[in-house]
Write a structure and sequence with these properties.
alpha/beta; globular; Rossmann fold; 2 domains; four-stranded parallel β-sheet
Length: 413
């Protein structure tokens, strides 16, 4: 694996090369004057991209930005064509939200008003994506979120311009509950991070547990910045729960796992898809992460997929390209960014030439809403009733063994 300095030097050189063709990620430069929304938007179609490259969620935002830089470099090299066969110049304008809604909102307005983008892909965290929705809805710009909470796209009638690429907790929670149910456990505890993502997981676990006849005997929250969850875990230990279901992200999810082991809790620990990254294992410690089970998209299980699985070739291609470009292992979070950008590009490829900016935005929104797309996160079937278009069938279960992810299908439970 390359060092961080070497890795980012390589990425910077590629990005500078891409700038010669498509203006890659140059937030410091003054934006060129663009046509008003009621006139032709010109030959360049602009995509806004927002990720938490710095701040507490950088472990998610960095691979997302790497995926965007990769797509920009590929566009510079290969390009895309429209329905008339003519090349389309696409520019991806990238900004760092720092994982903060306060930082993201003015950046979104800049993308919309100054940069005049036709579509925005971002943001990294659910609370930030939710904070952007009023801005997106008012400006009437299609927004493809890289965050997970179902509230980002629901209720659909209030999220007309909003889509997302990660699986929702309603797709992963049934796997958490199904796993413990098949271990003969009918009473569980649920711990969740105190934000939109965690609350969404809590609600999804409640629904899945009710449907499976599993009783939730304890629910407790923790903060994303917490470093001590022993109080909540002590309550779990004192309860009659037979398993612990968790909705969270590192570093808090890693600390919780470490303290779970230190307190000697003797029950299955089943996380959600938020831990599907190597930093979770590194922060928790290999011995503490051992045996943790969680549901996630199929990237981790790509080698075990049937050859006729429509995702297999897509996942293999993405992993190969991403690892060659970055020198780092592919991650599902990089995949969320890649999916969002590829969905936007798929819409742009079908867009007639000569549309005004307002017409571009409306066209892309409608195209995404009626799109079927095979991505890294699943086979998306968007519709006016469903702005994520995924299902539990797009999810697999994984177990951590010797510090590595291991595909853990139901027949092995």
């Amino acid at each position: 694996m390359n060092s961080w300095n070497g890795r980012w030097t390589g990425i910077l050189l590629l990005c500078l090369s891409a700038l010669l063709f498509a203006g890659c990620a140059a937030p410091a430069a003054a934006p060129e004057a663009a046509a008003p929304a009621d006139e032709s938007a010109g030959e360049t179609v602009k995509i806004g991209f927002m990720a938490a490259v710095t701040g507490g969620a950088a472990f998610l935002g960095e691979p997302e930005q790497e995926a965007a830089l990769m797509v920009q470099a590929q566009l510079a090299e290969e390009g895309i064509t429209g329905p008339d066969g003519e090349p389309i110049d696409v520019e991806i304008i990238m900004y760092d939200t720092e994982g903060s809604g306060d930082a993201a909102i003015p950046l979104a307005k800049k993308l919309i008003e100054d940069d005049q983008v036709a579509v925005i892909v971002g943001a990294t965290r659910s609370p930030v994506s939710l904070a952007l929705i009023p801005v997106i809805q008012e400006a009437k710009v299609p927004f493809i979120s890289m965050a997970s909470s179902s509230a980002i796209v629901e209720p659909v009638e209030e999220r007309y311009w909003v889509f997302k690429t990660p699986q929702s907790n309603i797709h992963t929670a049934p796997w958490q509950v199904r796993y413990v149910k098949e271990q003969g456990i009918d009473k569980v505890a649920s711990l969740y991070v105190n934000n939109a993502y965690g609350e969404d997981g809590r609600d999804a676990i409640r629904q899945a547990a009710e449907e499976a006849g599993v009783e939730i005997v304890l629910e407790e929250t923790f903060e994303s910045s917490d470093t001590d969850m022993t109080s909540q875990l002590t309550k779990v230990k004192a309860s009659d729960a037979g398993a612990l279901l968790v909705t969270g992200l590192p570093p808090a999810a890693s600390i919780l796992t470490k303290q779970f082991r230190e307190l000697g809790l003797d029950m299955p620990l089943v996380h959600n898809h938020g831990i599907g990254m190597k930093p979770f294992i590194d922060l928790a410690g290999v011995e503490n992460a051992e045996g943790v089970v969680f549901p996630i998209g199929k990237m981790i299980a790509v080698d075990s997929l049937a050859d006729d699985d429509p995702q297999k070739a897509v996942l293999q291609g993405f992993i190969k390209d991403y690892e060659a470009f970055t020198g780092n292992p592919a991650s599902t979070f990089a995949g969320h960014a890649w999916d969002g950008l590829q969905i936007a590009l798929a819409a742009i490829k079908t867009m007639p030439a000569g549309l005004s900016l307002e017409e571009q935005r409306a066209y892309i929104r409608d195209a995404v809403e009626n799109m079927e797309f095979v991505g890294t996160g699943g086979v998306f079937h968007f519709s006016p009733e469903d702005h994520v278009g995924l299902s539990p069938d797009d999810v697999v279960t994984v177990r951590i063994v010797d510090g590595e992810w291991q595909y853990f299908p139901p027949e092995d439970w």
